[in-house]
């Protein structure tokens, strides 16, 4: 029973931070398994608001051990400033564990991310500019720097040399930038070694031993299903696997250990950055969703693109992740519409299509087929149980559940920890 995965079912920003924090009080470990500080997870506790980028949201629950798994890419300067920011606010971060096998986002990875995007011009991905893609590229190219390399200066120097060999050619000859000095990078990285040392651990062993002892482990995804490098809207994706399988590779835990996979699903849809988005709105409804939902990026401050709920995507998320439950968030944002359109299928070149097309060309041509559901005007932010919701809000949730293929086990009616309707227990 003890291992649960919690992940984004759409294009990220579904409310994973809030959902993780809600469960944090009842679990022993919360583990980030992929991505890096491209994530921006908001947690609201009482009148305090926290924006977490690299740290698992479980860091705010005193009984919980937060873990950064091997599949994460770590920018040490961001990590250290996030830790000191929390310490200043009285949060104890001493339990944090970081995998020695996690890869490091080096300053040159950040540079390469930015210059590559600039070079792509109007074909750019709209990355967060945090060096995520280039760091994963180095990992796959076998020229990456890992956390454990910080503790062997000779190996670190050789690896930075190998990585910069090609990159400096590229930076100077192709992008017209200055070469990056090996010594400077090594010096900066060595400076982090002592500061990170208390946290570095064999997290694979720790987590598997915890599971053997029946401890509860929650894997917290960054980004979302449609941003997955394999299963998302490639190439407009991130460079890791937010989908459920990523929890196994990104933490070193076997699939047989995972008992529950919870998809976080916004009651409408948002996306940041470039790429196809069939239900995107360009009218005052889109503007209203952005305003009422506070849809502005936690990491980059960019306005999020907004649109109606897309059941085709939700069904796809159920399939590729093997979802057992949904946590539907931000239902309160939809209060006040007379009718709420929900995309139930696509029309692609004159054909009705019920499932997400695997062909990129088809997806780019997909037009939403909408069904209109009746809206509600009552304030739902104080609702504590499903029956507290107005009838039309109940019907909206039930319709989404039927279309999406997994039970909706919790509903968010506000950003706060307690503004949640729990239907089925997750633990
Ligand atoms: P994440 O990246 O998936 O953790 O999501 P973000 O934190 O980037 O964006 C979700 C935003 O919605 C945050 O500002 C949350 O505080 C907020 N939020 C989460 N759940 C709810 C909810 O049920 N209702 C409302 N109104 N806001 C919510
Ligand atoms: P959370 O965890 C929304 C998007 C970027 C860009 C693409 C690639 O808060 O849900 P990257 O920097 O990862 O190479 O950018 O992915 N993206 C996110 N969008 N929420 C996120 O994280 C995101 N992390 C990356 O906007 O389109
Ligand atoms: Mg976010």
Question: If you had to describe this structure to a student in words, what would you say it looks like?
Answer:
- This protein has 427 residues and is an alpha/beta fold.
- Helices cover 33% and strands 21% of the residues.
- The protein has a ten-stranded mixed sheet, with helices on both faces. Strands 14, 16, 17 and 18 form a four-stranded mixed sheet that branches.
- The longest helix has 22 residues.
- The model has no long low-confidence stretch (mean pLDDT 97).
- It has two domains: 310 residues, Adenylosuccinate Synthetase, Chain A, domain 3 (Alpha-Beta Complex); 96 residues, Adenylosuccinate Synthetase, subunit A, domain 2, CATH 1.10.300.10.
- The structure holds guanosine-5'-diphosphate, 6-O-phosphoryl inosine monophosphate and magnesium ion.
- 6-O-phosphoryl inosine monophosphate binds next to helix 4.
**What is the CATH fold-level name of the largest domain?**
Adenylosuccinate Synthetase, Chain A, domain 3
Assign a percent range to the helix content. Answer: 25-40%
Cross-sheet strand order for the largest sheet: 9-7-5-2-10-1-11-15-19-20
How many strands in all?
Answer: 20
Q: Mean pLDDT score, rounded? A: 97
Distance between the termini: 8 Å
Question: Mind telling me which CATH architecture of the largest domain this is?
Answer: Alpha-Beta Complex
Q: Runs with pLDDT <50, length 5+?
A: none
Instruction: Please give the count of helices.
Output: 12
How many individual domains?
2
- Report strand %: 15-25%
Bound molecules: guanosine-5'-diphosphate, 6-O-phosphoryl inosine monophosphate, magnesium ion
Characterize the overall form: globular
Please name the fourth-level CATH homologous superfamily of the largest domain: Adenylosuccinate Synthetase, subunit A, domain 3
Q: What class would the helix/strand composition place it in?
A: alpha/beta
CATH class of the largest domain: Alpha Beta
Radius of gyration: 22 Å
Largest sheet: 10 strands, mixed
């Amino acid at each position: 029973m003890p291992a649960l995965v919690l992940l984004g079912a759409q294009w990220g920003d579904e409310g994973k931070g809030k959902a993780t924090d809600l469960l944090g009080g009842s679990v022993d470990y919360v583990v980030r398994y992929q991505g890096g500080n491209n994530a921006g997870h908001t947690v609201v506790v009482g009148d305090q608001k926290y924006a977490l980028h690299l740290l698992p949201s479980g860091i705010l629950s005193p009984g919980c051990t937060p873990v950064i798994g091997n599949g994460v890419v770590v920018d040490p300067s961001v990590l250290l400033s996030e830790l000191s920011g929390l310490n200043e606010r009285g949060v104890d971060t001493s339990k944090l564990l970081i995998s020695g096998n996690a890869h490091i986002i080096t300053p040159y990875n950040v540079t390469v991310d930015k210059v590559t995007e600039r070079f792509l011009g109007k074909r750019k991905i709209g990355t967060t500019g945090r060096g995520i893609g280039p760091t994963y590229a180095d990992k796959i190219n076998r020229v990456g720097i890992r956390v454990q390399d910080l503790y062997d200066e000779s190996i670190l120097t050789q690896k930075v040399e190998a990585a910069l060999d090609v990159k400096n050619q590229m930076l100077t000859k192709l992008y017209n930038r200055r070469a990056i000095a090996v010594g400077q990078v090594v010096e900066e990285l060595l400076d982090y070694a002592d500061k990170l040392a208390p946290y570095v651990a064999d997290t694979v062993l720790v987590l598997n031993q915890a599971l053997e002892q029946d401890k509860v482990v929650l894997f917290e995804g960054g980004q979302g299903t449609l941003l997955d490098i394999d299963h998302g809207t490639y190439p407009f994706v991130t460079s890791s696997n937010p989908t459920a399988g990523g929890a196994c590779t990104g933490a070193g835990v076997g699939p047989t250990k995972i008992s529950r996979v919870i998809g976080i699903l916004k009651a409408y849809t948002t996306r940041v950055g470039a790429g196809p988005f069939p239900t995107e709105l360009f009218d005052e409804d889109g503007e209203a969703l952005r305003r009422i939902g506070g849809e502005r990026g936690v990491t980059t401050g960019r306005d999020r693109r907004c649109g109606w709920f897309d059941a085709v995507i939700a069904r796809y998320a159920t399939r590729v992740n093997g979802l057992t439950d949904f946590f539907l968030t931000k239902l309160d944002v939809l209060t006040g519409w007379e009718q709420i359109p929900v995309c139930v299928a696509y029309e692609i070149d004159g054909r009705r299509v019920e499932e997400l097309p695997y062909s990129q060309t088809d997806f780019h041509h997909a037009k939403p087929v909408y069904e209109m559901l009746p809206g509600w005007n009552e304030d739902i932010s104080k609702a504590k149980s499903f029956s507290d919701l107005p009838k039309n809000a109940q019907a909206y949730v039930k319709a989404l559940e039927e279309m999406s293929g997994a039970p909706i086990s919790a509903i968010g009616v506000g950003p706060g920890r307690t503004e949640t309707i729990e239907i089925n227990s997750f633990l």
